[in-house]
Amino acid sequence: MPSCSGKSGGASIQLTNLDIGADDEQLLAEIVETILPHGGDTMGAKDLNLHLFVLKMVDDCHSKEDQQQFLAGISNIDKLSKEKLQKSFVEASTEERLQLLQTIDNANDLDKDIQKFYHITKSRTIQGFLNSKYVMTDLKQYELIPGRYNGYVRVS
Amino acid sequence: MSNLNIDSIKDRTFDAIVIGSGISGGWAAKELTEKGLKTLVLERGKDVKHVVDYPTTNMYPYEFEHRGEVPLTIQETSPIVNRCYAFREDALHFFVKDNEHPYIQDKPFDWIRGYQVGGKSLLWARQTQRWSDFDFEGPARDGFAVDWPIRYKDIAPWYSYVEKFAGISGNQDGLKELPDGEFLPAYPLNAVEDYFKGVLAKKFTNRHVISARCAHLSKPNQIHLDQGRVQCQNRTLCQRGCPFGGYFSSNSSTLPWAQKTGKLTLRPFSVAHSIIYDEQKGKAVGVKVIDTNTKAEIDYFAKVIFVNAAALNTNLVLLNSKSNRFPNGLGNDSGLLGKYVAFHNYSARISAQYDGLKEFKTEGRNPAGGGYIPRFRNIFKQETTFLRGYAAGFSAYRSSDRDTSQIGSQLKDQLLKPTLGPWRVGSHMMGETIPKEESYVALSTDKKDEWDMPLLKIAMDYDDNDAKMKADYIEQLTEMFTEAGFTNIQPNTASQAPGLDIHEMGGVRMGNDPKTSLLNKWNQLHHCSNVFVTDGACMTSTSTQNPSLTYMAFAARSVDYAVSELKKNNL
Asked: What is the number of structural domains in chain A?
């Protein structure tokens, strides 16, 4: 996927419905990285361009309402960061980012757009990770051609 | 208009014409060409060559732009086909989109279609069970529709014939209600499916879980290798088309076999407009075709015509074949053409979990899908307040638990190292529905498609018998699951429109009496002896079995009869 081929200020991939700027794309990249960080000996969300996958899926597979809430949510999340941490999400430390997203995960009384945005982003990030070439081939979890079926495998 | 040049007519003249290249048309083509008849197969959609035209077949999940999901714009423009379980990003190209081929729902009907060479044989669920006399004798015993003009003994040898060639896996289960066949080794039940089988054997009389019988090469014979097919590799990506020919389809099996005889002409992009009836000769002489690319109208001629356009489209072609002799459609003196259509009731499912047998899990994938519970209601005698009964699918799998409540490195660990959860089990019903006169397909009098064909109006619905049967399925399965110690039992009775079962049948039913049926015991039109119908349209009743195997057997049997009659100059 091209990483910086977009018009200056726009998203780096071609989108049909979502009007999203480079800043928001960067913010989204940091959010997905917080959800699934690089670390240990495994790649993280940013390594796998999962922010672009989230954008692609929201652009093609979600309703207009979802898309509007997604866009409103992404800008509100930065406002929330400034309110709670006195700085933008991108400027916050890894630990601060994690805590901020955890509060969204646990809260019921937050801005509806933020919650919708967060819910979509988290589930699409998980989907993109599990369905990435990296996980499916390097970590060997998917067999295109099993060539067998065994209904009685003893669990060790 | 057709070119009347003599040579041109010669070029357009065959011994036989088959309308449709799906599961039954493919069989008709194979049998006709093997018997030496120069055969034209008409297909309204595009060509799909085995392997070559399976564009997604070797793709990994991450190679699909939307990881298998259908983009919303396509879902919104095709809400009907979008309800089909196999309408996913990997097989979108094998389904008719709603807006491409409109029809009229006099009652809600989800018409799922595959307009291409091979038709829905590329997409089918590959379950293959024989009918028994408890099925063929159903209408006569229970007083609905008309008596079938055949019994099990008439079709049994033809079941054997098609099974050997197609390759059907299964066990010899010794059940009267589900006759055994010519089987390749079955795909064994897994630990929990086997356990449930044992529970039913102990606690109930006459309730069985068997390995689902399916059209997969579990262990190919020479005849399958000769077709260029090899052992099923357990991919369970069948709806993409199989590069191994692991499951039976027209594309992998019957059509290439017919091609090898040198007698086959396959014409894609050809809508069969109508069958041409010659008033003087008193029989059909050919088929009027609309070329979908040029919209040109072309007549093709033959001595014998097989109509295998898929159940409802076969009705459409016959209804549209009007002449002075048959003003209401070919062979339709009875006025019953298009009536008594029916379907299968798939509108109930049930799931649960099992906390035992945790020492086992499964590996690889089972192309048969798991277990099959043959019909156990009202078989030997009427015993419930509803007529007939239902078969059921039954399968179990070991779930994996991934806690996704966290984020960060904890979430990643959970995703990469899931733990084994409990077994989960599921079942779905496959109920027989009763064909009724008020269930019909008919031609629109004012609306046509872009090829000048009248749109088809469709009306069939569930009735009180279906509602009672559905309630019984949930009650019985709940009891059986409870006996097995399954917990968290969740019935799901969300209705679905007829059609989504993709088992629509009837409209050109078989019967002994020309006043009450369209086809005789050889699938031959009572009133137009050189036209045969061997797809789902011929079905007098529906039973509970997945129907495709019976269509294949009818096609082979009917061709055998037609060719022997041709040789005797009787057609």
From this structure: 1
